[in-house]
What does this fold into?
Amino acid sequence: MRKALLALPLLLLLVLLASSCGGDDDGGSAGGTTTTEQASCEKGSLDLVTPGQLTIGTDNPAFPPWFEGTKEFEPWDPTTPPTKKGYEAETAYAIARELGFTDDEVKWTVVPFNQSFRPGPKDFDFDINQISYKPERAKAVDFSDSYYDVEQAVVTVEGSAIANAKSIAELKDAKLGAQIGTTSLEAINNQIEPSSEPSVYDTNNDAVSALKAKQVDGIVVDFPTALFMAAVQIDNGKVVGRLPAQEGGEYFGVVLQKDSTLTGCVNEALARVKDAGTLDELEQKWLTGSAPVLE
Amino acid sequence: MNALELKGVSKAFGEHEVLKGIDLEVGEHDVVCVIGASGSGKSTLLRCVNLLEPIDEGRIFVEGREVTAPGVDANQVRRGIGIVFQAYNLFPHMTVLRNVTLAPREVLGRSRAEAEADAVELLRRFGLADKRDDYPDRLSGGQQQRVAIVRALAMRPQLMLLDEVTSALDPELVGEVLNVIRELAAGGMTMLIATHEMGFAREIADQVCFLDEGVILEHGPPSQIFSAPREARTRQFLQRIVEAGRL
Amino acid sequence: MAHRQRAGSRVAGSRSSRILGGGGAGRSTLIAAASTIAFFGILVLVVVNAPGWPEVRESFFDRQIFQESIRDIAPKLLVNIRMFLIAEVFILVFGLAIAVLRSLPGPVFFPVRLLSVAYTDFFRGVPTILVIYLFGFGVPALGLSGVPNSPFFWGVASLVLVYSAYVSEVYRAGIDSIHPSQDAAARSLGLTHAQSLRFVIVPQAVRRVIPPLLNDFIGLQKDTALVALIGPVEAFRQSQIEVAGSFDYTPYFATALLFVLMTIPLARFTDWLVARQRRRTR
It folds into this structure.
């Protein structure tokens, strides 16, 4: 018995030493490679997740006005055939065409919002999902240039405590809510600074549920989403107003794997799309609507 | 009026008929001992009397009142009948005193002071006064059984049923329990006792019933049953008891 | 032969332990200590020298982020604590009520028994997270007057509904484990079924099932994190918020540590209670 007690740690020592000897990496092959100069954005030489196919990520469901399902005002399920309707949908296809892909060569994959800008390898070529550029996020992933300059807005229900608010001060005593990990939540904490802690939800859908249940007075989301929520998702919904734009502005970019060789190419393609006036057209088509700015 | 009367009482557990048409009379202040082999139905008989088991056929009368009639409140009937089992069934999470005062307080509505005074007196009478604050697991088998008897007596029953109360005890503890029963008998308590203690039965019983396979094969005064049994099976049974050295 | 060997080793043991300066027990302790140190020492060495350890350490065990996040997360743990303290009181009571209802005898109480069975089947069958969504969003959305709509309230209520179902089964097992002769003795004294339950059966049953009850209580403490889904910011949600900013998972580790530290005293208390129970019944 005593001998066994001594033998045990010795055996363990041998096993552990043996297992730790293998798998020695030469230098840092994971992460931190210097960006290689992109020689060519030729479709054939692009470094894709699946060769010959452009894999684009977004969340499920994908909501209007960014994506639209087969019926008007309905969200789109990326696991179903693409409808190519919606501001982000059409922007994505425009970029894809500039990169040389046909529409059939574009494949969609589901990526939950908060996972898109986490560090680590991606199973998409780029992700388009109302993701705002933030320096902390840019440490983990690549962002393209802006395809939409963002404003945050406050949505509520007619008759709520803040339905007629005209200024930020009138929002301070309200119970507000937002999705976790969003610039919308930050806007509440940094711009509105309410007296009670905001409620935090896993998804915007849950935030809408809370609004309908009168558990929050209002929720903060980007302005176009706010318009959609007020018009379609929430009975008697109303956009109270937009929050003033932050210094330096906030914008949506598509997200790519950190130091991806595609980033330059996507930016070039996006620049061409903008120059052609496409984004203005799409904005007219999908993102019209107005609301006052709350000061 | 008899303290207890059974008329044609039958009881079966599923297919197995345990009691087959029992007729029995226990007069006031009588001590009736029921003897018989294990499995003959002695325990079942007692449990039927205090309505723990519903009977299939027959009628039971306690103090002239039919307790097996529909609409009779069994709880009320049981207040007047005290039963003590072979395994003492004291409540292990209560002290001896609490064991004894529980029913008088909750069922009879007596005050705590009243119930405790009464309990202490009973315990003292049976030599258990110093055990009042002990938990049952600290008591010997004989002491536990005596407490069980006191607990039943605290309800002031008219009738006591004792179901082989010494069978689980070590031999040297049997005597103290038998003494308690003697005292009860001397005090005029009506008792129906199922027992293996033949010598005791002979000494104390007014009537002895031999229960054999669900029927009372023979009954009569102890002098008759033990010395001159009429039935062959009674004789066989008693012979086996004698051979076991218990008579 | 074996006897002699054993006797020999006992003598040898005491001789050598005299040399080592301890009793026979001292020698085993020494060996136990040595092997523990060796085992964990080697484990630590191997882990710390494994490739990828610096990244793992940065990602999960960053000291500065740990200190910062603890400051933000620890106060939020009070939300969880409030939730489970309130919930547990109701759970212990409702669970017992449901178990007792299930045990009511006789045909007249059949619907009550049926209700009790249906209740436990449903709330043990449905995932807790579903119940929280159903009651947390669904009921307030009905807009019934007089019905509270606070997510804290419905979160706690959902936990009560679900855990009462589990706890009622624990009580039931306890009640069933009490030998029927106890009930026979109680009834023979003239006590009613309710009185027998109240004074004899349930007190004994509850004593018996204290370890599984405490076990369920520990589980409840963890499930309070689910209430975050309907809005309230408690410790887990707070750690999520921290992580969303930095992508360092150290806040998750910090929260995990806090939860574990919270449950360890309860776990040891349970062990102590069980040991005490065993000593009592010996």
In short: Residues 99 and 169 of chain C are 7 Å apart (CA to CA). The first helix of chain C runs from residue 2 to 20.
